[in-house]
Amino acid sequence: MRILILEDNVGRHKEFRQNNIGHLLTITETPEECIKQLATEAFDWLLLDHDLYGQHYVPPGKNTGWAVAKWLSDHPDRKPPKIGLHTLHNRGAIAMRQLLPEALDMPSAWSFALDAYPHGSFILGQPQPERCKAYADGCHYWGRLGEDHEAICWYRICKCGVVEEWEPGRGWVNPIAK
């Protein structure tokens, strides 16, 4: 797969590379670099951070991932088939999702392999702590969101690649094995 990533944190660059061996990763650190790549190359995945330049929780604007989302909304023919928003800034993700409604909310995308992920099946979000084990268990948690952006289902993917769904009264179960 060809994966384009907008991320300014060099530590996360390393994690993206370690978790996606065998794929062609292009990592950009600015909206301008990312837009230039989108304008000239084709990608299978695009992963967008919102807050850049070492800043945190900034409003959407030309120096954020929102600028790339805005450019893509104006140039829909340049959109990759899969788009993920890996920002930890929820309001930034919402602003980008308004421009890219098909985008998946993937706040910890740097910490897992994209080809082991259930592509396109879920919109991701932060877990509810009372329903999830600690992140130290090696799993990644997410919720499928309703139209009001409230989670309606919770899921996790374990290091071994098994996807489980939270069922009240039963705990974590494999929805495929039901």
Index terms:
alpha/beta; Rossmann fold; 2 domains; four-stranded antiparallel β-sheet
Written description of the protein model:
By secondary structure, the protein is α/β, with parallel strands linked by helices. It has two domains: 1-120, Rossmann fold; 125-178, no CATH class. Helices cover 22% and strands 23% of the residues. The chain contains four helices and nine strands. The chain has helices at 10-19, 31-40, 65-74, 90-99; strands at residues 2-6, 24-28, 45-48, 82-85, 104-105, 140-145, 151-157, 163-167, 171-173. A five-stranded parallel β-sheet has the order 2-1-3-4-5, sandwiched between helices. Strands 6-7-8-9 form a four-stranded antiparallel β-sheet, with no helix packed on it. A hairpin with a 5-residue loop joins strand 7 and strand 8 (163-167). It is globular, with a radius of gyration of 16 Å. The two termini are 31 Å apart. The model is unreliable at 118-136 and 145-151 (pLDDT under 50).
What's the helix-strand series?
Answer: EHEHEHEHEEEEE
Taken as a percent bin, the fraction of beta residues is: 15-25%
Determine the N-to-C terminus distance.
Answer: 31 Å
Number of strands: 9
CATH class of the largest domain: Alpha Beta
| CATH homologous superfamily assignment of the largest domain | Response regulator
| Annotated CATH architecture of the largest domain | 3-Layer(aba) Sandwich
Give the overall form: globular
The CATH topology of the largest domain is given as Rossmann fold
Catalogue the unreliable spans.
118-136, 145-151
- The secondary structure category is alpha/beta
Number of domains: 2
Quaternary organization:
single chain
The main sheet comes to: 5 strands, parallel
Helix content: 10-25%
